[in-house]
Specification:
single chain; two-stranded antiparallel sheet
């Protein structure tokens, strides 16, 4: 294990006079893991999670693990997120009384994969991971994810079309409600249209066309209006 050299301290004083043995040891473990991160990414994730859980960063004067590792090891926010995500997704684990207990070694199912591959796989479902193999390159995995995303988008679009079609069919089969009762405050022609569903002007013109004599015209129009219910 490496000695602690060039430690960067934050500006926050949480009241600790000196570093605890746990804080010193955790720092040294992280420092060692980083020297061979391609092989020790799971143990690095384990020690970072332990450092965070015990809030050792406070003993170094920082308010968060993110600020601590950025200042001391140059690990930026996105890189820290990848390391911890890979650790929690692919580390071996047991079920404890209060939840999962993560080990500091990788699950046997994924030991043939590289860190770069696992970073691409971390958000895939278990069923989707079954289609990934160690022989696939990072580019291959990205292409698989792209195709998977396109398929999901197509499925969503298809489901929306099916739902819309079903809704349209339901609307077609739905009972057509009766015309609303006319409001006596409305204009005469509007009340006529509400009651009959027809245009008063058009109906009158047809009456005039079909009845040549004046007496026939008057009688036809009166009959038309009476039959409308007005």
């Amino acid at each position: 294990m490496s000695e602690m050299n060039n430690v960067v301290y934050g500006m926050i004083n949480y009241g600790n006079v000196e570093l605890s043995d746990g804080a010193k040891g955790a720092y040294a473990y992280i420092q060692d893991d980083i020297q061979d991160i391609k092989k020790r990414y799971i143990t690095l994730g384990f020690h970072l999670a332990e450092f965070d859980r015990n809030e050792y960063y406070k003993e170094y004067g920082f308010s968060s693990l993110q600020d601590f590792v950025a200042s001391n090891f140059g690990i930026e926010k996105s890189a820290l997120s990848h390391i911890l995500s890979v650790y929690y997704r692919f580390a071996d684990s047991d079920n404890g009384l209060t939840g999962k207990i993560y080990k500091n070694w990788i699950n046997d199912k994924y030991k043939e994969y590289t860190y770069s591959q696992l970073c691409e796989m971390v958000k895939l479902k278990d069923s989707e991971l079954e289609h990934i193999s160690p022989k696939m390159s990072v580019r291959d995995i990205r292409e698989y994810k792209k195709n998977l995303k396109n398929k999901n988008c197509c499925d969503v679009a298809t489901n929306k079309k099916v739902e819309q079609k079903a809704l349209t069919n339901q609307e077609k089969c739905a009972y057509t409600p009766p015309l609303p009762e006319p409001d006596i405050q409305r204009p005469f022609d509007e009340r006529y249209q509400l009651l009959t569903g027809a245009d008063l002007f058009v109906d009158i013109m047809e009456c005039l066309r079909d009845n040549i004599k004046n007496v026939d015209k008057t009688a036809a129009i009166v009959k038309l209006l009476n039959s409308s219910g007005l």
